C-alpha cells in the first residue's frame, strides 16, 4: 500500500523535531518563557560578540529534568531556577561554582536578597529577578472590592472562570494558605487536606497556564485566578481592566537566580552574561519591560517613577503582609505533592 | 550480470533498513521495557532493585480512569474521522486522476507546518475573543461568545483536525482499488444501492477502515500537547500522564510502564486487525 507509506511519512513530520547548531562563541541560555526582553539579547550579541541561543521552559520541574538528563552533554550554559531549585540542584552537585572574580556589579544587588540560606555567599547563584504570585481579576467582570483573598476563588459565582498557574507548588501553596498552613508544608496530612480543599475548587477551574498566565485573561477565557506580578504588569498594557490583588492570606514570593550547570560548555560566556545583566541600565530595562522586580538596587534608581512606584511590580510593606517565600520541601514531600497534583488534574 | 549489480544494492538496502530498525526502534524500546522494571531514584532517575511495582501502580483506579477517558476521547475522535473520512475518500477516488493528485497534495500540505503551531492556530480560532466568536457576533447570530476553548470538545476538535489525513489516506487507498465492475455486477444481479453498499462496498473497504482506525486511535491517546493547549491542561490523555511522569514527577520507571501499556494496547489492536483480515481473506476465498 503505497498510500500507507505516505501516511507513515506524514506521521514522521507530525512528530516534528528541533536541532540546535553549535558554533564557536555561543551562549546557550535556558530561561522561563517571556522572562527576558529580546533587546537585552540583541545588545549582548552586539556589544560582547557572543551569540545567544535562547531556549525556554515553563516550570522548574521541566528545567530540572532537562538539565539533569543532559548533565553530561553541556547543552546549556546558563539557567534561571527559583530558589528552592537552586538549593536542590546545588545539593545534587549539578551546578558549577560562580567565579566571583569574573562577575562585575554584584555589589549592586540588594543585600537582603544575597547570601541567603539556600545558597550561602552566593557560591552557585546570582539573583536575576524576584516576584510574587497573587490574584488577578478582570474588573469589567468581577466587582473590585469583592475579591480580597485566595479563599474568594472558591466562591460559587466564579464557576468555570478561574485560572490557576500550571505549577504544582504554587497551586498547593494556595490550598495550604487558605487552610492556614505554611505554603512550604512537608506534613503529609496538611498536604492531603490542601488536596481535599483544592478538589472543591476544581469544578470552577477553567484552565491551568504557566506559559503566559496573562493570556487566558486577555483572551477573555477567565475572569479571576492566579497570576505572576510581571504577567499582570504586561497584561495591563493590553487590557486596562486586569487588576493585580495581594491576597490577605499572603502572596507567594519567589526569587529566580542565574546558575551555571556543572558541565556548561562556555562558562566564560555565562559569567559575561551575568555581568552584562547586572549593569544597572540593563537590569532597569528588564524590570521596566517585563514588570518583575529587580534585585539590583542601582537599577532601581534608574527606573521611571511610574514603574518604581507600581505596586504590582514593587509591593509595599503592607502588600507583603503574610507573604511567604517558596522553599525546598525535599524529595519525599515532593513525591506526595506530585501524587496529589496528578490526582487533582486527572480527577473529574 | 544484472544480478551481480543488483545483489550488493539489495544487501545494502537491507543492511540499512535493519540497522535503522535495530538502532532506532528495537534499542529504544528495549530501554523503555528495561526502565519499566526498575525503581525510581531521585538522583540517577533509575536504580535497582528490579520490581513489578510500576505495573502494579498502573492498576490504581486513578490511572484506569485516565485510560478510559483517554480511550473515550480517542474513540470519539476516530469515529468523527471515519464519518468525515469515509465519504471524503470515496469522493476522492471518483474524481479525475489529475485532480486526485492535487487533492491528495492539498491534504498533505498542512504537514509542512509543525502540528504544534497549527494547534495554536486552532486556539486563536476558538478563543472567546477569537475569530469564530467575533464572526458570529458580528453577523448577529449570537449575543454572548460561545465558550469553546478549554473543553472536552475543543480537545476532540484538535485531535480530529490533526489526525483526519491518517484516516483518509488508507481509505482512499482501498477505494482506489475498488473495481467499478463489482458494483455494476451487484446492480445487474438486482441489488439496490443500499444492499450493494452493505454487502459489497463495506466488506471490500474494511481493511482500509481498520488501518485508518489504528492510525488514528492510538496517536489520539498520545498527543499530549493538544489537551495542554486546547484543553487548558484538563481532559488529559494517557500521553500527558507519561509526559508528566518523565518531566515533572521524574518517575521514569512508572512513565516507562505506562508507555509500555500503551504499546501493548497498540499490539492488541494490530493483532485483532490481522485476525480480522485473515477471516476476511477466508471469506473471500469461499
Automatic annotation (TrEMBL), chain A:
Belongs to the bacterial solute-binding protein PotD/PotF family. Required for the activity of the bacterial periplasmic transport system of putrescine. This is Putrescine-binding periplasmic protein. It holds the Pfam family SBP_bac_8. Transmembrane segments: none annotated. Spermidine binds at residues 34, 84, 167-170, 326. It comes from the Bacteria. Keywords: Periplasm, Signal, Transport. It is found in: Periplasm. One of its GO terms (biological process) is polyamine transport. One of its GO terms (molecular function) is polyamine binding. It comes from Marinobacter segnicrescens. GO terms for cellular component: periplasmic space.
TrEMBL record, chain B:
Its main location: membrane. The keyword Glycoprotein does not apply. InterPro entries: MetI-like, MetI-like_sf. GO terms for biological process: transmembrane transport. It is found in: Cell membrane. Keywords: Cell membrane, Membrane, Transmembrane, Transmembrane helix, Transport. Pfam families: BPD_transp_1. Residues 67-273 form the ABC transmembrane type-1 domain. It comes from the Bacteria. PROSITE patterns: ABC_TM1. Belongs to the binding-protein-dependent transport system permease family. CysTW subfamily. This is Spermidine/putrescine transport system permease protein. It comes from Marinobacter segnicrescens.
Amino acid at each position: 500500500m503505497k498510500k500507507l507509506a505516505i501516511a507513515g511519512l506524514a506521521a514522521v513530520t507530525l512528530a516534528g523535531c528541533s536541532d540546535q547548531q553549535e558554533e564557536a562563541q555561543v551562549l546557550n541560555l535556558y530561561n522561563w518563557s517571556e522572562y527576558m526582553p529580546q533587546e537585552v539579547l540583541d545588545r549582548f550579541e552586539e556589544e560582547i560578540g557572543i551569540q545567544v541561543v535562547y531556549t525556554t521552559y515553563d516550570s522548574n520541574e521541566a528545567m530540572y529534568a532537562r538539565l539533569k538528563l543532559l548533565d553530561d552533554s553541556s547543552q546549556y550554559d546558563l539557567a534561571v531556577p527559583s530558589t528552592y531549585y537552586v538549593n536542590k540542584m546545588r545539593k545534587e552537585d549539578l551546578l558549577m561554582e560562580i567565579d566571583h572574580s569574573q562577575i562585575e556589579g554584584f555589589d549592586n544587588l540588594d543585600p537582603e536578597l544575597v547570601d541567603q540560606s539556600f545558597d550561602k555567599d552566593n557560591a552557585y547563584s546570582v539573583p536575576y529577578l524576584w516576584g510574587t504570585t497573587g490574584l488577578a481579576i478582570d474588573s469589567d467582570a468581577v466587582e473590585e472590592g469583592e475579591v480580597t483573598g485566595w479563599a474568594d476563588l472558591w466562591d460559587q459565582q466564579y464557576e468555570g472562570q478561574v485560572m490557576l498557574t500550571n505549577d504544582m507548588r504554587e497551586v498547593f501553596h494556595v490550598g495550604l494558605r487558605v487552610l492556614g498552613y505554611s505554603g512550604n508544608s512537608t506534613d503529609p496530612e496538611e498536604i492531603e487536606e490542601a488536596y481535599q480543599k483544592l478538589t472543591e475548587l476544581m469544578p470552577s477551574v477553567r484552565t491551568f497556564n504557566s506559559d503566559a498566565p496573562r493570556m487566558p485573561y486577555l483572551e477573555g477565557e477567565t475572569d479571576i485566578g492566579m497570576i505572576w506580578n510581571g504577567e499582570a504588569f504586561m497584561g495591563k498594557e493590553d487590557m486596562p481592566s486586569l487588576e493585580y490583588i495581594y491576597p490577605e492570606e499572603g502572596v507567594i514570593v519567589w526569587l529566580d537566580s542565574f546558575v551555571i550547570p556543572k558541565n556548561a560548555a562556555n562558562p566564560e560566556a555565562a559569567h559575561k552574561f551575568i555581568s552584562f545583566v547586572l549593569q544597572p541600565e540593563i537590569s532597569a530595562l528588564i524590570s521596566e519591560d517585563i514588570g518583575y522586580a529587580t534585585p539590583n538596587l542601582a537599577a532601581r534608581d534608574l527606573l521611571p517613577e511610574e514603574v518604581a512606584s507600581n505596586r504590582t511590580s514593587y509591593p509595599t510593606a503592607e502588600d507583603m503582609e503574610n507573604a511567604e517565600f517558596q522553599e525546598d520541601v525535599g524529595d519525599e514531600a515532593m513525591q506526595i505533592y506530585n501524587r496529589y497534583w496528578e490526582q487533582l488534574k486527572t480527577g473529574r | 550480470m544484472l544480478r551481480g549489480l543488483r545483489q550488493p544494492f539489495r544487501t545494502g538496502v537491507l543492511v540499512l533498513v535493519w540497522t535503522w530498525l535495530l538502532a532506532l526502534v528495537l534499542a529504544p524500546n528495549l530501554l523503555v521495557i528495561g526502565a519499566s522494571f526498575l525503581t525510581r531514584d531521585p538522583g540517577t532517575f533509575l536504580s535497582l532493585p528490579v520490581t513489578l511495582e510500576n505495573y502494579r501502580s498502573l492498576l490504581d483506579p486513578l490511572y484506569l480512569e485516565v485510560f478510559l477517558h483517554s480511550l473515550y476521547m480517542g474513540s470519539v475522535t476516530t469515529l468523527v474521522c471515519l464519518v468525515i473520512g469515509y465519504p471524503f475518500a470515496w469522493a476522492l477516488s471518483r474524481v479525475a486522476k489529475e485532480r486526485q493528485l492535487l487533492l491528495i497534495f492539498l491534504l498533505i500540505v498542512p504537514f509542512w507546518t509543525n502540528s504544534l503551531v497549527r494547534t495554536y492556530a486552532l486556539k486563536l480560532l476558538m478563543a472567546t475573543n477569537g475569530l469564530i466568536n467575533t464572526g458570529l457576533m458580528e453577523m448577529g447570530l449570537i449575543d454572548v461568545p460561545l465558550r469553546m476553548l478549554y473543553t472536552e470538545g475543543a480537545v476532540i476538535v484538535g485531535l480530529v483536525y490533526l489526525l483526519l489525513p491518517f484516516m483518509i489516506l488508507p481509505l482512499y487507498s482501498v477505494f482506489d482499488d475498488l473495481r467499478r465492475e463489482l458494483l455494476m455486477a451487484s446492480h445487474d444481479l438486482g441489488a439496490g444501492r443500499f444492499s450493494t453498499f452493505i454487502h459489497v462496498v463495506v466488506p471490500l473497504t474494511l481493511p482500509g477502515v481498520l488501518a485508518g482506525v489504528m492510525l488514528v486511535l492510538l496517536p489520539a491517546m498520545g498527543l499530549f500537547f493538544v489537551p495542554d493547549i486546547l484543553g487548558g491542561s484538563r481532559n488529559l490523555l494517557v500521553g500527558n500522564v507519561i509526559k508528566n511522569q518523565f518531566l515533572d514527577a521524574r518517575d521514569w520507571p512508572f512513565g516507562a510502564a505506562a508507555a509500555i501499556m500503551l504499546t501493548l494496547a497498540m499490539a492488541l489492536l494490530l493483532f485483532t486487525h490481522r485476525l480480522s483480515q485473515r477471516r476476511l481473506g477466508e471469506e473471500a476465498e469461499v
